[in-house]
Amino acid sequence: MKITQEKFGECNSETVYSYQMENDHGFKMNCITLGCIITSIETPDKNGKYENIVLGFDTVEDYLEYSPYFGSIVGRVAGRIKKGTFELDGETYNLPQNENTNHLHGGPNSFDKKVWNAKKIENENEVGIQFSYESKDGENGYPGNVTVYATYILNNENELTITYSATTDKKTLINLTNHTYFNLSGNTKRDIMAHKLKLKSNEYLELDDLFLPTGKLLSVKNSPFDFVDGKKLNEAILSEDDQIKKVGQGIDHPFLLTENHNEEIVLEDDESGRKLIIETDEESVVVYTSNMLEGDFSIRGVQAEKYLGICLETQGLPDSINQPTFKPCILDVGEEYKTSTTYKFTRI
Ligand code: FUC
User: Fold this and answer.
1) Which of 36, 147, 155, 241 could make a disulfide contact with 131, Cβ separation 3.0–4.6 Å?
2) Are 15 and 7 in contact (CB under 8 A)?
3) Domain boundaries in the chain?
4) Ligand 1 centroid from CA 84, angstroms
5) Angle at CA 7, nearest 5°, toward 105 and 118?
6) Which secondary structure element, helix H or strand E, spans residue 60, and what is its range?
7) What confidence score (pLDDT) does residue 305 get?
8) For ligand 1, is residue 181 a contact (CB within 6 Å)?
9) What is the pLDDT of residue 17?
10) d(CA 192, CA 308)
11) Model pTM?
């Protein structure tokens, strides 16, 4: 097991460090202190060829200018908050409306754009980094001074576990996730249309025209959102279903998980032979097939375009503070927010 640190770049005159973690089988991953971003993960294909399977850039400047949350932590609250407003104990809070009239992914210049502190973790069978960040009372309109930890641990079974924890000195909201875009083809040779997804989920959230949950749970049965038995993403993405068309001809929906820690999320790519199993203690996963990934930039030499990656953002339900039937993402004084997700990289 190895972990090395080197300078990656500068952000607002703060040094951004990168960490390369490698296990005894050649599995390698890189992450940086800007946004706890995972910049690369190298795994073998069916012929043992190691290639990168996540979308990312090689400079701070590219991340700041082009990145739609590639590889980053998202918070204080992942997802949308309707009109950027919520009430806690009779007090109304107004957050920046950074997407139409809604608040998205913690607002502008949020956790994904901050330079986090980092501490190396080195044990015989695992290496990792403990990232930490002090989110000040009032940051992007949220109450409470919140201390946040995101710990990345790589072991010798080719498993990456991300554990989030947070405490606050005033009742607040928190709902963290990691926003990595996976593409198992290797070095983005192909898009994700032929990737196969399997989900232990019978229901997903209906979204409105601004991608906010309406509060209605829809059954996946007889719909393009049925991944219970596993199917190729193009079978859903190319559907004429209203909810598929609504989010830019693809998936951008929260799915409620029926099980935890039991291979509840599985992504495969037959051509490369790569397989990713995700297990979490979270209640849901937002599946996003990068329907909006278009722009005048390239990603390590590949022109940005739709369907180049799939995000599997394990988290609490979006806008839960404003949806009476959802579990609200409230963190109170004296409580600890703690959640973890494990990514197991293997082969079919
Ligand atoms: C919005 C979200 C997606 C993704 C993208 C970067 O479109 O709805 O899930 O986070 O931003």
Assistant:
1) 36
2) yes
3) 2-190+281-347
4) 16
5) 55
6) helix 60-66
7) 98
8) no
9) 98
10) 6
11) 0.98
| Per-residue model confidence (pLDDT) at position 190 | 98
- pLDDT at position 313: 98
Q: Name which residue sits closest to atom 8 of ligand 1, judged by CA.
A: 252
Q: Report the SS3 class of residue 141.
A: helix
H-run or E-run covering 51? strand 50-52
Q: Whose CA is nearest to atom 5 of ligand 1?
A: 68
pLDDT attached to residue 12 = 95
Compute, in angstroms, the gap from residue 293 CA to the centroid of ligand 1: 9
What CA–CA distance (Å, rounded) separates 339 from 106? 18
Quick one: fold of 2-190+281-347? Beta-galactosidase; Chain A, domain 5 (2.70.98)
- DSSP-derived secondary structure for 107-121: STT-GGGSB-EEEEE
| Active site (catalytic) residues | 179, 313
Q: What is the Cα–Cα distance from 123 to 154, expressed in whole angstroms? A: 10
**Closest ligand 1 atom to 179 CA:** 10
Q: Is 288 in the pocket of ligand 1 (CB under 6 A)?
A: yes
CA of 26 to the centre of ligand 1 (A): 32
The pLDDT assigned to 238 comes to 98
Query: Mean pLDDT, 10 residues at a time, over the chain (348 residues)?
Result: 98 98 96 99 98 98 98 98 98 98 98 98 96 98 98 98 98 98 98 98 98 98 98 98 98 98 98 98 98 96 98 98 98 98 98
**Ligand 1 mutation target, pool 82, 98, 103, 105, most atoms within 8 A of CB:** 105
Q: Which of 77, 104, 290 to mutate to test the pocket of ligand 1 (most atoms within 8 A of CB)?
A: 104
Ligand 1 geometric centre to CA of 260 (Å): 24
Contacts of 160 (CB under 8 A, 6+ apart): 29, 41, 152, 153, 154, 342, 343, 345
State whether the beta carbon of 286 lies less than 6 angstroms from ligand 1. yes
